[in-house]
Amino acid sequence: MIPGRWFWPAFGLMVLLQLALPGRMILQHEQTLRQGTEHRFKTAPVDPYDAFRGRYVALGFPDTQARPSAELAALDEAERQRLDTLYATVERGDDGFSSLGQLLLAPPAQGDYLRLPADRVSLMPGDGPARVDLPFDRYYLTEGLAPEAERLYRERRSADAEAGQAWLLVRLRAGRAVPAGLYIDDRRIEDLARTPGD
Questions:
Q1: What is the value of pTM for the model shown?
Q2: In terms of domains, do 93 and 3 share one?
Q3: Which end of the chain has fewer beta carbons closer than 10 Å to its terminal beta carbon, N or C?
Q4: Residue whose C-alpha is closest to residue 175's, from 91, 84, 86
Q5: Shared domain check, 116 and 70
Q6: Which of 85, 109, 130 finishes a domain?
Q7: CA distances from 156 to 48, 107, 128, 167 (A)
Q8: What is d(CA 58, CA 51) in angstroms, rounded to the nearest whole number?
C-alpha cells in the first residue's frame, strides 16, 4: 500500500500515463493528415453485398504486391517468421496513382514508405512478389451518409472496375498512412452521397 502522502502524486502520474498513449496516437494521426505526402490508390470492388460493416466502406485494392529486397529474399523461412515489421516503398506512376514498390527490412533513406506489421505481408519463397494487406482498408463515414455512399461505391465499381473511377486519397508520413478521402469520378463520396440522383 502506498503511504498517504504519496497516494495523490502516484495517482496523478498513473492518470497522465494512461492519457499519454492515446494522446500520442491522436497527435501522430493529425500530423500525418496535415503534413503527410498525398498518394492516390485505385480501389477495387469488395463483395457488393457486404461493402459496409457499421459506418465504414470496406475497400479492396487491385494491386497489393511488393518486390522483396535482396536482403529479405535471402532470409530463410525461420528468419522470416521472426520478423516483426517490414517497410514497403510507395511509388507514384505516370497515371498519378501510387502502388507499392520494394519490400525492405528497414525504412528507406528517402522517399515515402509504409510501415507494415509482418503479419500483414505474405512472403513467397525466394524472391517472388509478396502480397500486402494495406493498413487503410476501411473508409469511415457518418451514419447518415453511409447507406447512399455504399450504394454509389458498389454501383460505380461494379459497372466499370477497370476504369479506376474509384480511388482513395492517402496521406503518408514517416511510414504512417491516414485515409484522407474516397473519390468516385474525382468527386468525394461524401459530396455524391449528399446529392440525390447524382
A1: 0.75
A2: no
A3: N
A4: 86
A5: yes
A6: 130
A7: 11, 36, 33, 11
A8: 5
